[in-house]
């Protein structure tokens, strides 16, 4: 599977299950978030690829290649509003990805992790880290 197909599938799942229904402004890789309104919550979603290795050694058949990676969701909320809404959004993201397998492209999401919150300029920021692997057969 190509990196473009993997990233597209992950972004599409986030947009369909999180950004759209939660009505949250979302920036993806290489988009300018400097226009984020200072009084609204928003997210940045990054797809970070790890290594690709050969997972099977089929003599004359198809070989399996596995690419690993991380989908990092940075959640920004204005300072002063508490973290209840942010934690609820993080839980929603976890539920949308935990243990899910997609078939086309073949992606498996492991159990996401939610980080501690911290100040980042005028924002209270919290990350959700979603490890994934994708298999390709050639």
Span between termini: 10 Å
Mean pLDDT: 92
Number of strands: 8
Structural class: alpha+beta
Q: Strand-and-helix sequence, N→C?
A: HEEEHEEEEE
If you compute it from the alpha carbons, what radius of gyration comes out, rounded to the nearest whole angstrom?
17 Å
Number of helices: 2
Uncertain ranges: none
Shape: elongated
Major sheet: 8 strands, mixed
Helical percent range? 10-25%
Give the amount of beta strand, in percent. 35-45%
Write a compact overview of the structure shown.
Helices cover 25% and strands 43% of the residues. With 138 residues, it is an alpha+beta fold. A hairpin with a 2-residue loop joins β7 and β8.
Characterization of this structure:
Helix 1 crosses helix 2. This protein has 138 residues and is an alpha+beta fold. It has helices at residues 3-22, 84-97; strands at 25-28, 42-54, 64-78, 101-103, 106-109, 113-114, 118-120, 123-137. Strands 1, 2, 3, 4, 5, 6, 7 and 8 form an eight-stranded mixed β-sheet that branches.
Q: Tags for this entry?
A:
138 residues, alpha+beta, eight-stranded mixed beta sheet, 8 strands, elongated
